[in-house]
Amino acid sequence: MKAIAIIGSPRKGGNTEVFAGHALKAIAEQGIDTELVRLAGLDIRPCNACMACDKEETCPIKDDLLPVYHKMKAADAIILASPVYWGSATALIMALMERTGYIALHNGRAFTGKVGGAMVVARRAGKSFTFAQMNLWFQPLGFFSPGSTYWNVAIARNKGEVEKDEEGMRTAWNFGKNVAFLLDKLKV
Ligand SMILES: Cc1cc2nc3c(=O)[nH]c(=O)nc-3n(C[C@H](O)[C@H](O)[C@H](O)COP(=O)(O)O)c2cc1C
């Protein structure tokens, strides 16, 4: 079994990566393979509504999306993590969600039955909105989403500050444990 966390920050080594990486460590502790997938540096453009994915499991936009889509398809659990930018998830992760969600939906509902959920970091405001915004993606795609001991949100501004948010880090850890628990319950 494999769990991946997709990091929607354009900043490598930032708080979102540390926060979601902590959940991955909790998952790995249960003997499940994990991978952190950074979108930073990748060219991922928004959906242009060409509807090509209605007919074929692909996207004609020539950028870096498809390898990430195939990693998502192969994973048993998908965590999507984003910093808050202007009260919202980043454009980078929203572009990924638009396109991978549509490709999966129109090609045998490819994400159905996977485990997943959102994780969000902000300096101050927009955490709950962004968490809700990102979780809207999981439900119609047929994911099973476990809870934690709080919403999966953390407070941090400069790189590394998230480690000081003790409750946030504990929430990430407990979320990871619940992802692993659910994966174990769902395995056939
Ligand atoms: C363009 C931009 C917009 C931001 N907007 C918000 C915001 O609306 N609310 C907030 O609390 N923090 C905001 N921040 C701060 C980031 O959410 C915060 O620094 C976060 O820790 C960055 O995560 P990262 O280190 O993974 O990149 C913004 C940062 C940038 C660069």
Distance between the termini: 11 Å
The main sheet orders its strands as: 2-1-3-4-5
Averaged pLDDT, please?
98
What's the Cα radius of gyration?
15 Å
The CATH superfamily title = Flavodoxin domain
The total tally of domains equals 1
Strand content: 15-25%
Catalogue the unreliable spans.
Answer: none
Q: Considering DSSP H and I runs of 4 or more, what fraction of the residues is helical?
A: 25-40%
Class of secondary structure makeup? alpha/beta
Indicate the CATH architecture.
3-Layer(aba) Sandwich
**The CATH C-level class name:** Alpha Beta
- Tell me the total number of β-strands: 5
CATH topology: Rossmann fold
Which characteristics define this entry?
five-stranded parallel sheet, 38% helix, Rossmann fold, alpha/beta, 188 residues, binds flavin mononucleotide, 5 strands
Can you walk through the features of this model?
The protein has one domain: Rossmann fold. The relative contact order is 0.20. It is built from five helices and five strands; from the N terminus they run E-H-E-H-E-H-E-H-E-H. Strands 2-1-3-4-5 form a five-stranded parallel sheet, with helices on both faces. It is an alpha/beta fold and 188 residues long. Strand 1, helix 1 and strand 2 form a beta-alpha-beta unit. Bound molecules: flavin mononucleotide. Flavin mononucleotide binds next to helix 1 and strand 4.
